[in-house]
Amino acid sequence: MFDLAEAFGCAADGTPVPGNIRISARARRVSVIVHPDRVDLVVPVGVPLEGRRGALAFLESKKEWVRLAWERARTGAQTREAARPPAPRYQHGSTVLHGGRDMALSVVEADVRRARVEAGEGLRVSVPRGLTEAGRERSVAVAVRAWAWARLLEDARRHAAGFAAHLGQSVTDIRPTRARTRWGSCSATGVIRVNVALAAAPPDLLEYLVAHEVAHLRWRGHGPRFYATLARLLPDFQDRRTRLRAFEREHPWLLR
Questions:
Q1: How far apart are CA 172 and CA 161, in angstroms?
Q2: What percent of the chain has pLDDT above 70?
Q3: Of 53, 60, 116, 184, which residue has the fewest beta carbons closer than 10 angstroms?
Q4: CA gap 242, 185 in Å, rounded
C-alpha cells in the first residue's frame, strides 16, 4: 500500500506537498495539475496506480518538478494575498473607487425602507433608521454596488448601440458578469457581457471594452480584420488597451 504523503514529497522547507489523486473518466493520460493549495494527480479510468507503468511511477519521475512548481505556486499566492488591500468598508467617511476616482461616502439615517444613493462629488447614502453597525454597512454596500453597476450597464448599452450602428450590426443584450479572468465577452448570438468590476475604472476604458466586444459581432477572432474594425470604432484603442491592462495590474483584486 502506497503512502500518499510520501508519493508527493516535501517542499524545501520540509512542508509536505498536499497531494490528491483524482480518477477521471475524461482524462486520456496521467497528468499532474499544480494549484497553490494542492497538487492533483489525474489518473484516467483503468490506469493502475502502482507498478512500473502505474500513475505513481509517473508521479515519482516528476517529483522534483512537482516540488518546484508547487513552491512557486504557493509563494505566488502568498505574495498576491499579501498585496491585496483590505476589503472596502462601506462606512461613513470611507471611499469607494468608481469611474477611476475615489468617491467619499456620506451615510445618514433617514425615513426610508431601503438604502438610497445620491451622487455628487461623493456618494450620499440614506439608510433606514435603527440598523446595527453591521446591518448598516451591508445595506450601504448593496446599495452602492447596485447603483454603480446600473450606471455601468447604462453606459455600456449607450456605447454598444452607437458602435453597433456604425458597423450595421445589432446587439442582442448587454448583461453583467463577475468573471474572474476577463473584462468582457461577446457571444455568437450578440450578447455582450461586461464585468461589473469595470465600474471602478475610468469611463473611457469601459468604452474601449465595449468597442472591442462590438467588433466581435463582425469578426470572431483577433486577426487583422478584427483590429482594423476596432480601429474604425476607436482609433486610439491601443492606448486604451494598454491603460486597461495597467489598471488591472494596479487593482488585481477587482477580478477576484
A1: 10
A2: 95
A3: 53
A4: 18
Q: Could you tell me if residue 218 is inside a domain?
A: yes
Domain count, the chain: 2
Residues spanned by the domain of 217 = 142-255
Q: Which of 181, 184, 214 is nearest to 199 (CA)?
A: 184
Contacts of residue 124, defined as CB under 8 A and 6 or more positions apart, other chains included, come to 106, 108, 117, 118
Summarize pLDDT for 183-222 with one digit per residue, the tens.
999 999 999 999 999 999 999 999 999 999 999 999 999 9
Domain assignment of residue 117, yes or no: no
Give the domain CATH number at 170: 3.30.2010.10
> What is the model's pTM?
0.67
**Residue 91 within any structural domain of the chain:** no
pLDDT in tens, 92-117: 999 999 999 999 999 999 999 999 99
Domain boundary among 34, 65, 83: 83
